[in-house]
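Aim 2, interim progress: modelling of the flavin-adenine dinucleotide-bound target.
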Amino acid sequence: MKEPARILVVGGGYVGMYTALCLQRKLRQELRRAAVEVVVVDPDPYMTYQPFLPEAAAGSISPRHVVVPLRRVLPHCKVVVGEVIALDHSARCATVETPATKEDGTGGLQLPYDELVLAPGSVSRTLPVPGLAEGGIGFKTVEEAIGLRNHVLEQLDIASSTRDPAIRDAALTFVFVGGGYAGVEALAELEDMARYAARYYHNVEPADMKWILVEATGRILPEVGPVMGQYAVRELRARNIDVRLETRLESYEKRVAVLSDGARFPARTLVWTAGVKPHPIIAASGLPRTERGRLRCTAALRIEGVEHAWSAGDAAAVPDLTAEGPAKPDEPRRECAPNAQHAVRQARVLADNVAAVLRGEPVVDYAHKYAGSVASLGLHKGVAHVYGRQLKGYPAWFMHRVYHLSRVPTFNRKARVLAEWTLAGLFKREIVSLGSLEHPRAEFELAAGTGRHHEAS
Ligand SMILES: Cc1cc2nc3c(=O)[nH]c(=O)nc-3n(C[C@H](O)[C@H](O)[C@H](O)COP(=O)(O)OP(=O)(O)OC[C@H]3O[C@@H](n4cnc5c(N)ncnc54)[C@H](O)[C@@H]3O)c2cc1C
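Predicted structure of the complex, ligand included:
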C-alpha cells in the first residue's frame, strides 16, 4: 500500500494550529482515505492565545482558558509533543526531541515528510545587557504570565512584612522594558491588579509602588498610531506610571536597573518585552533567510527557491502586497509585520496552497491590508485604531474585549472566557498568589525532613 503524503507542521501556535485546522477540513477526503497525513509538532500540547496573556496575568481569565488543546481541535491530525531540533530539508527529514527520547537519550525521533510547514514563531529579542539574562523575565508564554502575576503579588507580601526599607522599596519597584503591546498591556494590567490588591494590605498603598516603562524610541504602542500612542502615555502617566521614552536599560546587575538617562532603580522585577526575533531553529535549518533572520518567503507563502517548504507568521518574511509608499531604508521590500492578524490569515492561505499543490491546482498570493489594533490599558481602559477609527477609554477597552472574544479559537473557549468576564463583573477581583504551585514538593519535603520552604523570588 502507498504511504500517505506527510505534511509536517512545525509549531502548534497561531500559524501551525490554524494551518492544521484548515488542512483537516480541506483534505477531509484524502485524510479519510489515508492518502495524506498531517503531523503537528510542538513542545506544548496547546496553542496559546497570546493577546489574552496580560488579562491572564491580571487574573481576569484563567490560564487554562487562554490555551487551546491541540489534540481536541485537531482530531484528524497527529499531534506530537516535542521539539524539532534539526531539519534536513534536502533529505525531507526532521529530528524531533520528545519527552521520551530525552529520557532514554536516543537523540531524537527521525520524522520524514513530503511537505514542510515551518512555523516556530519568535522568541524574545534580548540584548547583551549585563544582568538581564540572569534577572529578567519575558512575557510570551502562559507560564511567564502566571509566574509574573504570582511574583508581583508575592512582592506585596514581602513589602508588607519586611522591616528593611531597601527591600521594601525594591519589592515595590516594577520595571518593564519595551513599549509594544506586550509590554504596555502587561504593565497596565498588572499595575491595575496590584493597585486593587493593595487595598487588602494594611501597610502598602498604591502610591508606595513604582511602575516604570522604559522605551528606546520616542513613542509607545506603534500599532495604534501616534495619536493613540500619545494618549496611552498620558493615561499611564496620570496613573503615576513613570513612562521613560528614548531611554534604554543599561544593566540589571544585583537587581538594580540602570537606565541610559542615569536613573538607578533597585527593583526585584524586570520584565523584558523589547521585541521579538525569529526562533533559532530557523537559522539552524539552513533555509533562505532575510537580513533580520526571518525565512524569505514568496507571497504564496513558499520558502523562496525551495520546493515543498512553506512558512508564515512571526518566523516568515512575507511580502506585503497591500503596502503603500516606499520601503524603509533597512527593509529592501515591504514585509508583513509579525502579529496575530497576519498569522491567522496567512495560515488559511498557506493551507489552501498546500492542498492545491497536492491536488495539482494553482496557488494564490497572500494579501491583507492591516486593519489596525486594539490594546487594553487595564480594566475599563484602552486604546484602539481600527479601520481608520480611533477610540480611547472605556469604548476602546470594550472593543478590545469584543474583538478578542470573536478571535479566540473555538466556541468552547469563547464561552468560558465570556463566563469568566461576566462572573468577574459580579464579584471582587482575585488577588491570591499561588506562587507555591511552582514548588509543589516543598510541603512534602518539609514533612519528610529533607527540604525547606522555598525562598521568595
Ligand atoms: C503578550 C502578547 C500579546 C500579543 N498581542 C497581540 C495582539 O493584540 N494582536 C496581534 O495581532 N498580535 C499580538 N501578539 C503577537 C502574536 O501573538 C504573534 O504574532 C503570533 O502568535 C505569531 O504566530 P506564530 O504562529 O508565528 O507564532 P506562535 O503563535 O508563537 O507559535 C509558534 C509555536 O511554535 C512552537 N515551536 C517553537 N519552536 C519549535 C520547535 N523547534 N519545534 C516545534 N515547535 C516549536 C512554539 O511552542 C509555539 O507554539 C501578541 C504577542 C504577545 C507575546
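The two ends are 58 Å apart (CA to CA). Residues 142-161 form the longest helix (20 residues).
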